[in-house]
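Priority: medium. Attachment 1 of 2:
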C-alpha cells in the first residue's frame, strides 16, 4: 500500500482541513462509529438539543398560544430566508412547507396550469420514484392530456443530457429533474438545462434534496423557476423535518396553489369562506406548520452558513475524489464497480459502488465494523460524505473495512433478510 493509501496520509488530510472544527458541534456519542449516511439523514447539531428543550419547556410550556405572536407564525419565512442564502435565491423566494412530495405536487400542478395547451412533461429515468408517482398523478388529475416522458440514461449513472435537450420542444410544459441523482450522485448543470427549457417556453421544476447543503445551487443566477427539497439530509434538520418550496419572484403571482388552505390566504384570520391567496409566497402554504420540527432545522442551517457552501463543496469534492482513488487501487480488484461520475464537477457528495454481494456487505459493515452507509437495490452501496463532520480518516477506514471483509468473505453470514431501512 502506497503512502497515499495509508492511515497517516488520511490523518494528514484531516490536519489540514479548515472545516475540522465543525465536527465538535454535532452529537457524536460513539466516536468509533463511522457514519456515512448523512445523504439520507444528517447528524444532530448539538444546539438542536437545547433548542428542543426550550421549545417544549418555555415556548410551548410557558408561552402557550402566545408563542404564535413570538415568532412561530413567521417561522416558515424566517427559515426560508436562511435556506435561500444557501440555495442562492432571494429571501422572498423560499418558504418552509409540508414534505418534498407534497410540495412537488403543488408546484407540478401549478406549473402545468400555467402552460395551457402544452401536454409534455419531461424527466429522466434516474429521478426519485416518488417524483414519478407525483408527476403521473398530477397529469391524470388535471385530465388535459398530459404525458410523462422519461428519457433513459445512457449508462444508469449519468443524466441523459443529450436526450433531454432533443426532447425539449414547444409542446413541453414542464421539465422536472433531481438536481443530484439519488442513486449515482450525478449532478446536472442546473443553469444550462434551465436555459434550454426557457428557450422553448417550458418551466423547470428541480428537486434539490441531494444537493442542498452539499454544493452551491445558485437558483437566482440560473433564473430557476421552481424547486423543492427536503431538509433532513445535508441540511441536518432532523428526521422528517419539513421541506421547502422555491418560486422565482416573477412567477409567484401567476401560480396558484392547488391545495389552498387558511395559512396561505390573504388575511388568514379573517376566516372568510372564499379563498383569496396571499400576494407573497405564503400563498403556497396550506395548513398549520409543525413548529417543533420546523424550528429544529435552523441549527443545521446556521452551521452551513457559518462554514460557507463553497468551502463545504470543496471538501466534499476532495473526499469523494479520495474515496474514488481508494476504490481504483483497493476495491476495483475485489469486484466493486463505480456507479458515480468520475468528473468531480458532475458529482454530488456521495459515491455509489456496486458489488454482487452488496446487500450482505452493507450489513457486515454496519454490524461487524460499525460503519453505516446505505444500500439501494439490487446491488448498490452509497457512501455519503458530509464535510462538516466526516473525516478523511473515516473515509480511509471505510475503504479498508471493505477490503478486509470482501477479501475474507466475512460478509457471508450477513446474507440475511434486510431491515426495512437500509
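Attachment 2 of 2:
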Amino acid at each position: 500500500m502506497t503512502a497515499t493509501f495509508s492511515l497517516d496520509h488520511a490523518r494528514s488530510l484531516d490536519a489540514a482541513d479548515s472545516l475540522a472544527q465543525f465536527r465538535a458541534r454535532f452529537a457524536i456519542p460513539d466516536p468509533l462509529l463511522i457514519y456515512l449516511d448523512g445523504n439520507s439523514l444528517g447528524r444532530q447539531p448539538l444546539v438542536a438539543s437545547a433548542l428542543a428543550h426550550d421549545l417544549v419547556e418555555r415556548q410551548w410550556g410557558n408561552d402557550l398560544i402566545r408563542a404564535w405572536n413570538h415568532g412561530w407564525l413567521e417561522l416558515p419565512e424566517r427559515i426560508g430566508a436562511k435556506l435561500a442564502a444557501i440555495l442562492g435565491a432571494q429571501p422572498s423566494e423560499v418558504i418552509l412547507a409540508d414534505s418534498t412530495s407534497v410540495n412537488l405536487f403543488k408546484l407540478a400542478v401549478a406549473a402545468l396550469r400555467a402552460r395551457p395547451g402544452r401536454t409534455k412533461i419531461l424527466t429522466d429515468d434516474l429521478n426519485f420514484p416518488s417524483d414519478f408517482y407525483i408527476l403521473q398523478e398530477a397529469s391524470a388529475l388535471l385530465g388535459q392530456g398530459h404525458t410523462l416522458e422519461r428519457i433513459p440514461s445512457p449508462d444508469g449513472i449519468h443524466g441523459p443530457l443529450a436526450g433531454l435537450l432533443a426532447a425539449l420542444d414547444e409542446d413541453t410544459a414542464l421539465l422536472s429533474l433531481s438536481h443530484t441523482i439519488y442513486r449515482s450522485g450525478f449532478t446536472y448543470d442546473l443553469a444550462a438545462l434551465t436555459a434550454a427549457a426557457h428557450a422553448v417556453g417550458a418551466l423547470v421544476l428541480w428537486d434539490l434534496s441531494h444537493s442542498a447543503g452539499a454544493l452551491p445551487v445558485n437558483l437566482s443566477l440560473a433564473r430557476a423557476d421552481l424547486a423543492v427539497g427536503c431538509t433532513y439530509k445535508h441540511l441536518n434538520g432532523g428526521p422528517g423535518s419539513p421541506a421547502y418550496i422555491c418560486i422565482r419572484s416573477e412567477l409567484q403571482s401567476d401560480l396558484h396553489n392547488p391545495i389552498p388552505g387558511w395559512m396561505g390566504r390573504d388575511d388568514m384570520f379573517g376566516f372568510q369562506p372564499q379563498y383569496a391567496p396571499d400576494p407573497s409566497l405564503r400563498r403556497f402554504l396550506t395548513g398549520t406548520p409543525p413548529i417543533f420540527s420546523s424550528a429544529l432545522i435552523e441549527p443545521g442551517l446556521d452551521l452551513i452558513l457559518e462554514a460557507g457552501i463553497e468551502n463545504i463543496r470543496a471538501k466534499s469534492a476532495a473526499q469523494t475524489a479520495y474515496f474514488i482513488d481508494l476504490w481504483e487501487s483497493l476495491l476495483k480488484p475485489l469486484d466493486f464497480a463505480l456507479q458515480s461520475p468520475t468528473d468531480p464537477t458532475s458529482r454530488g457528495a456521495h459515491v455509489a459502488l456496486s458489488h454482487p454481494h452488496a446487500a450482505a456487505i452493507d450489513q457486515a459493515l454496519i454490524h461487524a465494523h460499525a460503519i453505516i452507509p446505505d444500500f439501494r437495490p439490487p446491488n448498490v452501496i452509497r457512501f455519503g460524505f458530509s464535510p462538516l463532520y466526516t473525516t478523511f480518516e473515516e473515509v480511509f477506514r471505510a475503504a479498508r473495512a471493505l477490503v478486509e471483509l470482501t477479501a475474507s468473505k466475512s460478509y457471508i453470514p450477513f446474507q440475511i433478510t434486510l431491515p426495512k431501512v437500509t
